[in-house]
Automatic annotation (TrEMBL):
<dbReference type="InterPro" id="IPR042176">
    <property type="entry name" value="Pantoate_ligase_C"/>
</dbReference>
<feature type="binding site">
    <location>
        <begin position="187"/>
        <end position="190"/>
    </location>
    <ligand>
        <name>ATP</name>
    </ligand>
</feature>
<feature type="binding site">
    <location>
        <position position="61"/>
    </location>
    <ligand>
        <name>beta-alanine</name>
    </ligand>
</feature>
<dbReference type="InterPro" id="IPR004821">
    <property type="entry name" value="Cyt_trans-like"/>
</dbReference>
<keyword id="KW-0566">Pantothenate biosynthesis</keyword>
<dbReference type="Pfam" id="PF02569">
    <property type="entry name" value="Pantoate_ligase"/>
</dbReference>
<dbReference type="GO" id="GO:0005737">
    <property type="term" value="C:cytoplasm"/>
</dbReference>
<feature type="binding site">
    <location>
        <position position="61"/>
    </location>
    <ligand>
        <name>(R)-pantoate</name>
    </ligand>
</feature>
<feature type="binding site">
    <location>
        <position position="156"/>
    </location>
    <ligand>
        <name>(R)-pantoate</name>
    </ligand>
</feature>
<keyword id="KW-0963">Cytoplasm</keyword>
<dbReference type="InterPro" id="IPR003721">
    <property type="entry name" value="Pantoate_ligase"/>
</dbReference>
<feature type="binding site">
    <location>
        <position position="179"/>
    </location>
    <ligand>
        <name>ATP</name>
    </ligand>
</feature>
<keyword id="KW-0067">ATP-binding</keyword>
<dbReference type="GO" id="GO:0004592">
    <property type="term" value="F:pantoate-beta-alanine ligase activity"/>
</dbReference>
<comment type="subunit">
    <text>Homodimer.</text>
</comment>
<keyword id="KW-0547">Nucleotide-binding</keyword>
<feature type="binding site">
    <location>
        <begin position="150"/>
        <end position="153"/>
    </location>
    <ligand>
        <name>ATP</name>
    </ligand>
</feature>
Amino acid sequence: MYLFKRKDDLRRFLTSAREKGATTGFVPTMGALHQGHLSLIHRARQECSLVVCSIFVNPTQFNDPADFEKYPITIEKDIQLLTATGADALLLPSVAEMYPEGPGTPGPRYDFGELETVLEGRYRPGHFQGVGRIVHKLLDIVQPQRLFMGQKDLQQCLVVKHLLKLIGSPAEMIICPTLREPDGLAMSSRNMRLGPAERNNAVALYKALCYVRDHLGGPTSLPEVVAAARLQLQSAKFDIDYLDVIAVREDGAVLFPQAPVSGLPMYAVVAASMKGSPVRLIDNLLMNG
Ligand code: AMP
C-alpha cells in the first residue's frame, strides 16, 4: 500500500493510474479502524481496480471540542489493517495539508436543506457543514468513480449524496450495511472509549431499535411503539437525544411519519449516551424491505 501525506503526491499517483484505465473506489474515514471500516474496503476491492482510503480526523465537523480531543487514534494498527485488507493507497494528511486556509477560517456554505436541522443536524450544529467541507476537498483530490460509505451514519450518507449533486460530482455513492458486534452493538471507533460495564450496557441501543422494528405495523401505533422503546432505553440509563422513526424520500428528504408508509425505506434512528458518559452513540435499523 502506498502512503501519501501530501495531496499533490496522491493526485499525481491517481492521474497516472487513471491514464492506465484504473477505476477508483474511495473510502474516507477518521481512522481507529474496525471491521465495519474494513467491510467498506472489501466492497471497494470487489468493485474497483484501485482502492483509496483516507484517514483524517476532521476538526471542522466536531461541534464538541472535547469529542475531537478524545477521538481515538491508532495509526500504526490502521496501516497494518489496510495493508492486510488490500487497500492500494492511503491519504494521511495533516490538518495544515487539508486546511491551508486554517480550519477556523469559514468555508463554503452548503445548502443541505432540512437535513441540517433534524436529528444529527439539530444536536450537532455545524457538523454537516464540516462534513461537506472535508468530503468536497477529498473528492477534489481523489475524483473517485465510486464512494463507499456506511449506513451506520445514515444521515451523513444523505448529506453526502446531496453534496455530490451540489458540486456536480459524478461519483457514485455506495451505501454499505452496518457491521455489528456479536451482541448487536454497531461497530464504532467511539466504542473504544466505553468502559467494560458501559460496553455491556450499550447493546440496549440496538435492542431498542429491534423493539421498534418488531412492533411496527402491529396493533400498537407508531408513536406508542417509539415511546415504549424510549422508555426501555431510559431504563437502561441512557440519555436520549432522539429515537425516532423516519422515512427517506427518493430525493433524500427525511419524513417523520406517524404510521408505517409503504414504498419508502423506513428506519428507526437513535442517538444517545449513557448517564455520566461523554460518549455519544448513534445507530439505525431498516424497518422494511
Ligand atoms: P468514521 O471513521 O467513523 O468517519 O467512518 C468512516 C466510514 O465508515 C463511514 O462511511 C461510516 O459510515 C463507516 N462505518 C462506521 N462504522 C461502520 C460499521 N459499523 N459498519 C459499516 N460501516 C461503518
